[in-house]
Structure formats: C-alpha cells, structure tokens
Design goal:
The protein is built from nine helices and twelve strands. With 315 residues, the protein is an alpha/beta fold. The strands form three sheets. A five-stranded mixed sheet has the order 3-2-1-4-7, with helices on both faces. Strands 10-9-8-11-12 form a five-stranded mixed sheet, with helices on both faces. A two-stranded antiparallel ribbon has the order 5-6.
C-alpha cells in the first residue's frame, strides 16, 4: 500500500442509506470543510457512485491526497468491492466501490465498512494495542472488533457483523440477510418497533414512538425495548468472554432512546461475564457525530489504495 503524503488533506466520505456526508480532513484530524448530499439509494449503484464523486468534489482542494469511504454493507477493503449488502441501496452488492470512485475523481481511494471506520476512532492511535468490541445498534445491528489495536476484516470483509449472531430471543424471526433467528431481527430499531406491535401494542412508525410509550408505562413498548436490549447485552457478554476485550462500546441511535434500554443491556451483559471480566462495562462512543467521516479519512493511511486508470492489485 502507498500511503498519501502525511501532511496532505484527505477526503472522508460516510455513505449511508439516506445521505452522504463528506469532510475534508487535515493531517491533524481537523475538519476543514463539510458537505452533505442525499443518497440516491433507489437509483442504483452507479448513481450512488456519481453522488459520492459529487460530494468529494464539493470539499476537495488543491493538494488533496486521497479519499476514504466508510460505506454501508460488507466491504472488502483489499479488493475495494461490496461483497454483500441489503436492498437499502439497490444493486449495491458486487459494486466495485473503490475503483468506481477512483475513476470518477482521479484520486486514490481506500474503503471499509462504515461501522468499522467509526470504531477505529475509539482506538488511541497506532500505539494502542487494545482489544475492542464495538456494536452499532440502529436501523440494523453492525459491529467491529479490533485485536492488538488492529481492526479485523476477516474473509471478504465480513468480520464484525454482530447483527447476524444467532439469538435465542429472535427464534424463528426473519432477518434482513435472509436467515432466521439472528440478533438484528429482534434488536434493531425497526425490529423493536415491530415486536411491540406483535406483543399487542398499537402500531408505530418509528422507535422513538415506542420509547415515548414505554416512558408512559405502556407494557408492550417496555417489553419490546427490554427484550431487544437484553438480546444485545447477552450477545455482547458472550463475545466478551470469547475475545477478552479491554473496551466495549455500544453506539447507534437505539442506545440513545433512554435508560430503560441502556440499563437492560448492561444488566444482561454483566450477567454473562466470566469472573475475570466482572468489572467490564459497555460505554457510549466518544467519537461523536464526526466519527464516521474521521474514520473514513484515516483509511487511506491504513488500508490499500485503489488508483484511477489502473487494474490489478491495489498498492
């Protein structure tokens, strides 16, 4: 791999299902410029690549060294492709993400999964040799694992997809991946909302509505939220026993709905821990709203770069 000039700015792109956030990031991690464009998710992969290029051009300055993309889906940073994805972005699976964007912008591109990029900001620089377990619970359930300070990618970039762990609480429930009984099917925001209705609650269009009802004492909303939280806590506690992490971080929109969720998750997590880990507790992320774009901007310095107008292995 060929890292960009250490003093040159880098563009970080955070690609989600509804919007693309772009930031020009200086060598010291300062955000120098920002821009946001909608994600044309229903128009297909080529339209999304075009939108990524538009967002990059909006913050680009002379001397920009590279682009880092933190993208939804299973991303293989070594081939620069989307190896698997849901239908949130139409036709996203199989997209040559890095090559397509490099051709459109003329800049070298590094890419990774969005949760993994955000999780990297929880590490304290290149000398941090911690083992980190990171979960992102929102519209889906994603995650990342770092061992000895290095993010694990695994075969085809699939490492860290915690939402597809088997979960007893999700028995027989269909998952977005096509299987049944996975954690995401009971723990993601839409899954909690749907489960509240299955338990006999009133229809709801969003998790925040369910959370508001739980705060008013609605038993169906309360049961759905605590079930999703306990399922997540149990899965993370089991993984903690397997991995021995120094830190466990739980990010995403779902943990922010209130103490009912957070307390249930932490109690379930703690109940699973083996004695040597009894003091370990999940904590919220410290990266804030810029975690994904800052993580994306760091990718060209740590992952292979895919150059425009070239074929074969990345540098």
């Amino acid at each position: 791999m060929t890292a960009p000039h250490p003093d040159a700015p880098v563009i970080g792109l955070d690609l989600g299902g509804t919007k693309i956030a772009a930031a020009l990031v200086g060598a010291d991690g300062t955000v120098l410029a920002r821009h946001t464009v909608p994600t044309p998710a229903k128009e297909g992969a080529e339209a999304v690549l075009d939108a990524l290029a538009v967002a990059a051009r909006a913050v680009r300055v002379h001397g920009t060294a590279a682009i880092g993309v933190a993208a939804a889906g299973v991303i293989d940073p070594f081939t620069g492709t989307v190896t698997s994805a849901t239908d949130t972005i139409r036709g996203w699976a199989g997209t040559a993400l890095a090559a397509g964007l490099a051709i459109r912008t003329g800049l070298p591109v590094a890419c990774d999964n969005d949760v993994r990029a955000a999780a990297a900001t929880e590490l304290d620089g290149p000398d941090d040799d911690a083992t980190l377990l990171y979960a992102a619970v929102g519209t889906g359930v994603g995650g990342a694992v770092a061992a000895a300070g290095r993010m694990l990618h695994g075969a085809a970039g699939i490492a860290g997809h915690l939402g597809h762990l088997p979960s007893p609480e999700a028995d027989a429930l269909p998952c977005t991946c096509g299987a049944t009984g996975h954690l995401e099917a009971v723990a993601a925001g839409p899954a909690i909302t749907a489960h509240s209705v299955r338990l006999g609650g009133r229809p709801a269009d969003r998790l925040q509505t369910v959370a508001a009802r739980a705060a008013e004492g609605d038993p169906h909303a309360t049961a759905a939220i605590t079930l999703g939280a306990r399922a997540t806590g149990r899965a993370l506690g089991g993984l903690a026993n397997a991995l021995g992490p120094h830190r466990v971080v739980v990010a995403g929109g779902v943990p922010r709905i209130g103490t009912l969720y957070w307390d249930a998750l932490c109690a379930a997590f703690t109940a699973e821990l083996m004695p040597p880990l009894r003091d370990l507790r999940p904590r919220p992320p410290r990266g804030g709203a810029d975690a994904a774009v800052l993580g994306a901007a760091a990718l060209p310095r740590t992952l292979p770069l895919h150059h425009p107008h070239t074929t074969g292995a990345p540098s």
